[in-house]
């Protein structure tokens, strides 16, 4: 058997979208995305985007932070370096009040470097502030690959 065939399952697993956290029902999924909801209207989704400009993790960290704060009205409560299935990633915990309701937003992203373009992997979790803590560790556990 050729060595590349032995690596195929490993390579495919590395590119796969992570599963949904416990307590979430998948409502839409495809090769490059998954959307899930919980009974309390919490939402979790993972998507991938091509990046032909090949921006670094630091570039996207600063760009996203500026967009969230300057254009979307979020307050960044915490920002930290994490691992997404063994790869370097950035996690931002944000909060916003919209329509009189406080909501928490956790966004985690990593960059997969490619020969001609990079791929940006983004996981987003949003919930009302009062139920956010019920799910956040499950979301983090899925992204860590635990």
What key phrases describe this protein's structure?
single chain; 146 residues; disordered N terminus; alpha+beta; 45% strand; Protein Transport Mog1p, Chain A; 3 helices
Description:
The chain is α+β, with helices and mostly antiparallel strands and 146 residues long. It has a single domain, classed as Mog1/PsbP, alpha/beta/alpha sandwich (Protein Transport Mog1p, Chain A). It has 3 helices and 7 strands. A 7-stranded antiparallel β-sheet has the order 1-2-3-7-6-5-4. A hairpin with a 5-residue loop joins strand 2 and strand 3.
Q: What is the radius of gyration computed over CA atoms, rounded to a whole number of angstroms? A: 16 Å
**CATH fold annotation:** Protein Transport Mog1p, Chain A
User: Helices and strands: which structural class?
Assistant: alpha+beta
Give the overall form. globular
What is the CATH superfamily classification?
A: Mog1/PsbP, alpha/beta/alpha sandwich
Report the total helices. Answer: 3
Please outline the major beta sheet. Answer: 7 strands, antiparallel
Strand portion, in percent?
35-45%
Low-confidence stretches: 1-15
CATH structural architecture: 3-Layer(aba) Sandwich
Work out the number of β strands. Answer: 7
Q: What is the strand arrangement across the widest sheet?
A: 1-2-3-7-6-5-4
Spatial gap, N to C terminus: 31 Å
Helix share bin: 25-40%
Domain module tally = 1
Mean pLDDT: 88
CATH class: Alpha Beta
Elements, N to C (H/E): HEEEHEEEEH
